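Teaching note: in complex prediction, the entire set of molecules is handled at once rather than each chain in isolation. The prompt given to students was simply: 'Predict the structure of this complex.' The entities are:
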Amino acid sequence: MSIQTLLMELVLMPLVAFVVGLFMVLMLRRIGAKLQRRVGPPVMQPLYDIVKLYGKKTQISHGWMHDIGIVMAVGGYVAAETLLPVPGMDGIADKGGLVTLVYVMMIPSLGLALGVGQCANPNGSIGIARALTAMLAYDVPFVIVVFGVAWYFGTTNLVDIIAIQQAGGVAGWGATAMPLLAIAGLFALQGMLGKQPFEIYIAPAEIATGPMVEMSGKYLGGLFVMQCFQLYTAGVLYVSLFLGGGENWLFFLLKVFAVVAIPMTVAFLFPRYKTEQMIRLMWKWPVMIGLLGLAFVMH
Amino acid sequence: MTPLDELLLFSGLTLVFLLLLGRFSYAGKVATVFYGGQLLFLAKMADRIVDGSIVTFSLQVELFGQQMSWRFDALSWFFAVITLGAGLLSSWYASGEWGERFRRRGGNLWLLNVALAANVFSMLILLGSGDLLALFIGWELVSWASFLLMTVAGGRAIQAAMRYITYAMSGAMAILAGIVLLWSHAGGLQYGQIIEVIPQLSQAQVWLLVALFGSGFAVKMGLLPFHLWQAAAYAETPGPGAAFFGAISARMGLYAIILVLVQLIGLARLSELMIPFTFLDMRDLWAWIAVLTIILPTYIALRQSDARYLLAWHGIGQGGYMLLGLVMGDALGSAGGLLHVFNYATNQAVLFFAVFAVMFRTGTADLNKLGGLITRMPISFFAMLVGIIGLAGLPPMNGFVSKWFVYRSLMIEGEPLLFLGAIIGTLGTILSVYKLIHNTFLGQLRVEHVEVREAPWSMVAPMIILMLLIFATGVAPGLVLDWVALVQSAVGLPVVENTLGGVELASGSLDMLWVVGVLFAGFGIGALLFYSGGRTRQVHQLDNYAGGHFLTAEIRYHYSDNFYAGLMHLIRPWYRGSFVWLESTLGSLLGIAASLIQRLYGALHPSIYLLVTVVVTLTWVLL
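The expected output is the structure of the full assembly:
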């Protein structure tokens, strides 16, 4: 691959991720509206929201770490997208691999945590403490899934993992070969997205939206962009591990939207779990299912 | 003179200089230069080490008919680089305002400097040992030098040091027993003789050897269940001493484990030793000890409210990653374990430096009495940030690379439970280090800290050097991996074939040059987006609202205590203190036995002993 193509991919991959992410946010709101018998927002609403937030007149900064935190939150995901292959573009996926991707995905959370920390708002700090605890909860089943997939395909290179699945058709998909791990992965995905019922760290009525409490204007705008990337990344990662990645863009997007739609739909049907309930739940069912799936995969 | 003669001579000279002239005010600075000189002598050895040859020491001593010799191979050299680097930076940190303040407050700076030099000198002797007798003598020297440095602060530190020396002496007895056992079979203590005799020993004998040597060395390394002494002993040591201990001291245990278990006995032999009544072999046992050492101390660290104790507990936990990588025994895992010795040393040193810089300015390391110092001590904040990213093992810092190697090794070898344990440890570390930086530097600034300034340059400079080192070896891990590969070939492990940016594997490569490059490009885009937005207005640090209430600076609302309340709600009952209970039970049993024997001596008449002895002897003679 020539350096020009690579550079072009490195620019295009985050850009595509952002646009797709915007539509995912739209879908999330539309699903919510349908379930609550509302009309829902127009197509361009997520973009309008971002433009509005970035252009706000009141932009309160609590110091340089507050600013850098938002830069890290967006920038970390921009980098993560280049490690995630999409149809026709591999970026630098072969130079990082699955484990690196999982860890690069923690950078935005770290940036957010540091930024919120400097705001000196106890509600924000409580929110971060809960968000990190939630990470401890859902990452345990998630790494079981990652291990199982890497073991089954014999590689952590996402390009190869996708190629192996596509070579076998639907029968070669990760979800067909490892159904239990796929279920455990879906569980972890729900926690990872931080939507209901696992949004105790936001809890608007209790800690006034937690990490977002001191975020005004473009700070909140940055978090909005981060959410677009987050939805996209989680969806694409799941599709790459279990649903054969993308043969072409049409099927790819169909699969990714379908995967993200599941947690979104579930989100509006359940009440919120407390932190310790979430840990107990995550460490019990998906871990058990995941370990069982792992036992099947490894023997 | 060989380069090793020069190095040991110069190191000894540093110690003598400090002993004699250490009370002068410039002594600390001169000593720092001396440590730099020692590093230069070590660098002089580098080309011989790269060739794979061994640098010998000219002096040989004969003791009890045993020839004692010293030499440096790649393994010794690698550990010596870290030892001297830690010594240099710690001495630098102590040489300026920190040392001045320490002395003014009644601390014995002379003793601190002497103890530090003694530690470095004794560690070099240990690392250079060319046979088991020299190893044992080096081991004892290191133990007593550590004890000396631990006692400098007095008070609680003495208690911790006494606990350490009790553990260390028990460990040394185990090692001595192992050496005697080997001597009785091999008739000598040269490494060559031992490598020859090991295959002839029965499984039971090797089992005993591994248990004796292993538990002895595990004490120094702080492996479970011998970990209880370490946190307090390291945390109570004054600033530079704690940083030095944290960085390298416990790794002498790892050095000895590599030497005896990997080089002399061999990992393959360990796999043949079964653990009775289980389906585990000795190597699995070591791997599980490593994983438990990762998990338990890390989650104990999570509960600490003193920054120094928090770091010291993490130090114990991080040792588990090194051992885990090493016992995997493949090129990737052992490279990760060895690389982590270096990476962890840089992370832990910078973290201790930052914590003691905060302590220098505020007088406390209590995580419930700090907060908001980021605006007052920005460089120290940044040092801690780099350190925690490294310690937690996130890109782009060096700690990520070594842990990646260990994870990948576990994935390739098919060890899902060990892998899960290692990750649970990493997640716990992330939680705990965020609490550390949040409670210290983020959140509300206390009124009494409004006037606090950045630490003086003599303390900041070592931090900056370490930050650069952590970042540089994170972007280009190949710089250190080259040394690691030399160590692997010296001790007979499979050698990793690394690139500058990491490693290329058919089953998934790592190239940190690209990963970090893209990460920073991403940050660039994030910054572009951010700064293209509306103009920001910065509010004063003490100008805060929470839940609609205006809070004055006098009201304390920093969220620091019981930081992970939700998690603790669930896992608090799991902290049972079983090891503390075990230790105190052992202690009480020993106490009871001692008082019984004392009673026997004191209460009974000597003639009864005579009678008993005569009866027993007669019975024996008659029968």
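Point out the following to students. Chain B touches chain A through 77 residues (CB under 8 Å). The mean pLDDT of chain B is 90.
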